[in-house]
Amino acid sequence: MHSPLNPRVIRRKEEPDRIVELVHYEAEPGDVVPAILMIPRRRTPPLPAVVCHHQHAGQYELGKSEVAGLAGNPQQAVAAELCARGYITLSPDAVCFEDRRDRRFEGDSGERFLSHELLLKGLTLQGKMVWDVKRALDYLFLRPEVDRRRLAMIGHSMGGVETWFTMPLEPRLKVGVASCATTTFAALLAAGALHNDGMYVPGLLQWGDVPDIVSMIAPRPFFMLTGQDDWRFPLQGAKEVLTRARMMYRRLGASEALELYVSPGGHEFTDEMRPRAYNWLDRWL
Fold it and tell me: 3-class DSSP state for residue 214?
């Protein structure tokens, strides 16, 4: 059962083209999620909204601020860029990042500690992260400016992983975009690519692999982007996800709703890739 969100607007700044709010809400009782909400001005609500999930990159000091374009890599400023295109964007801190860091720990120790604590309780870090996205959507449902029928999610790397992990469990998300985040676990294991603790759900491979998860998104539109030389998410596995998941999309008469774009680069969300992602959201929302 969903506990009260207890939402609060901490700060509000009116800019020429947008309104920027720092908001707080509770994912669970006492677990406060700081998030940045951006609302475009000179647009008539209700407007489509996008949950913009930040990357990992071992940058625990960064989270919502990077996708909001306030710090970090400009390639990651998807929330700011989408707001400029007319979308309401919500950028929450993932657990263990930015204002949700456990100050007792340095580096990845806080993430590992939480992962182990949840395992002891019969839970997983991935389950916690999916739950937090669901609560972000609960928050958007409270905002009168948001068109509840037009909700999407976008993310790069860990943010993209959370997109394909969440969408099968969250029908309110109508469109998804994952940059440099989609391959098979078989390809990851073969390449020796190690990811954050949240990627690994005990027993998952007994039931299926990433293509099976993406298949459960069908027939909703889902766009994958990847780098030709991205060793963290091998291209061979990304192509397998496309091939296998497309069978379900075809069965449901939605072949055009699943695509994979391959960039000539590596693990990045380049100036050439992002407009393709935004055009996908424009097309379906």
Answer: helix
218: closest CA among 240, 243, 241, 250?
Answer: 250
Strand order of the β-sheet with 222-227 is 8-14, 18-28, 31-40, 88-92, 47-53, 146-156, 175-179, 222-227, 258-263
Structure tokens at 143: 């905002």
Q: How far apart are CA 108 and CA 27, in angstroms?
A: 22
Q: Which amino acid is at 183?
A: T
Q: In the numeric block, which tokens belong to residue 104?
A: 């007792």
- Type of residue found at 53: H
What gap in Å lies between CA 270 and CA 242, rounded to an integer? 21
**Tens digit of pLDDT at every position of the chain (285 positions):** 679 999 999 999 999 999 999 999 999 999 999 999 999 999 999 999 999 999 999 999 999 999 999 999 999 999 999 999 999 999 999 999 999 999 999 999 999 999 999 999 999 999 999 999 999 999 999 999 999 999 999 999 999 999 999 999 999 999 999 999 999 999 999 999 989 999 999 999 999 999 999 999 999 999 999 999 999 999 999 999 999 999 999 999 999 999 999 999 999 999 999 999 999 999 999
Give the integer Cα–Cα distance in Å for 236 and 22. 40
Closest CA to 79 of 285, 284, 283, 281: 281
**Residue spans per domain, the chain:** 8-284
| CATH class of the domain whose range is 8-284 | alpha beta
Q: What is the pTM of this model?
A: 0.97
